[in-house]
DNA sequence: CGGTTAATTGAACGCATTCAACACGAGTGG
DNA sequence: CCACTCGTGTTGAATGCGTTCAATTAACCG
């Protein structure tokens, strides 16, 4: 990891209008290489991050080695916001990443800034929404439905152009609570039914949206 | 549902120190009978609730009838905080309930934007913690581990006295992402190994804590 | 080209589900 | 007090989905 700017920089500035601006003002720009750890499980949750470029994965390891991927974070997303004083999930760079980081202390110092507080709350809400959706997926969906849901969540918005798959099959499996083999089988099946198409291993295109949505449960 | 006090009561009071105090001051006391709906899926998320007595269950139904229980809320817990403008999960009273309810707008008006955000954020964090734990459980734990984890979460704190099971087997199953039969089998097994003991269907006692924790994964 | 890692495919297994029957408890009325 | 019923929970047997283990293929990079 390389640090471009010093981390602490209160500098007594005025309230920021947007979270992005606050990160720009109070934050430090950081760079992480592919597969580099951003923070570890059980680390102090001191910093709050916003993705500028690249993709980040959060994950948690159980004692006996099983892994659960929490989520994937894309440019604009905020992560590192934790319930307690330490990180329950570790964070790693899926690809080369550029991040903005702010200390919690800085957040507190700038606490008068309504907009900033509001933005953190907004981030917490997004996080809750992701988590609720994830609980429903893991609790009540079949393997096929999970994979279909996952592809939809990646592809939605991107009209019809090919969507990049930033993560490998193992990451997808650990995110969906499946094995890598099952994920592979489901992808093959979806491709066989001409619902999605894989120009390469790391990119796909949705061919039949309604069919995919029907399969997502 | 019966309403003891009017819902809106700004009364120009001072900022509250804690969310609990805010509930005491601004909230309206509400009563719900067993199995009564507190709010429905897709209702406007206008109110925020705190449990005074009784137990509340949140749940979500999929189109084809599968149900996922979000969580169970006990006295002191806050629920109803949602990411978006409407409720993704419905809430029902598991037993006869006494709740304090406040309008979001009331809290914001009375406590000030800052206090409001701080308190809500704190509640959101607790909710996130529950959700993260739930994701790990649903994604990577076996049926036995899920049931053991569930019993532990209910029993922790309560030294060794019998713990009440406020919910039926179906609720437990829908919370753990299992079927009612599987839950029953696991409970029978834990009982057979003298790890827990069931004086009645709706109460249990932990006999061997370390064994139970070992099984929880 | 090899050499290496990631992904797919196949076959056998096992855990949880499904379907079905049975047991238990609480409430009701004879 | 017992018989009846209904809801809830338990138990058994068979099925199936996803896993596991193993082998093969494909992609990537020197």
Any overview of this molecule?
The structure is a homodimer of 217-residue chains. The radius of gyration of chain A is 19 Å and the shape is globular. Chain A has 2 domains: 2-126, Sandwich (Jelly Rolls), CATH 2.60.120.10; 141-215, Orthogonal Bundle (Arc Repressor Mutant, subunit A), CATH 1.10.10. In chain A, strands 1-2-9-4-7 form a 5-stranded antiparallel beta sheet. A 4-stranded antiparallel beta sheet of chain A has the order 3-8-5-6. In chain A, strands 10-12-11 form a 3-stranded antiparallel beta sheet. Chain A starts with a strand and ends with a helix. By secondary structure, chain A is an alpha+beta fold. Residues 5-17 of chain A have low confidence and may be disordered. In chain A, β5 and β6 (67-73) form a beta hairpin. Chain A contains 7 helices and 12 strands. Chain A binds chain B through residues 60, 62-64, 66-68, 70, 81-84, 88-89, 111-112, 114, 117-118, 120-121, 124-129, 131-132, 134-136, 138-140, 174, 176-177, 217, and chain B through 60, 62-64, 66-68, 70, 81-84, 88-89, 113-114, 117-118, 120-121, 124-129, 131-132, 134-136, 138-140, 174, 176-177, 217. Chain A binds a DNA duplex (30 and 30 nucleotides) through residues 142-143, 168-170, 178-185, 187-188, 200-201.
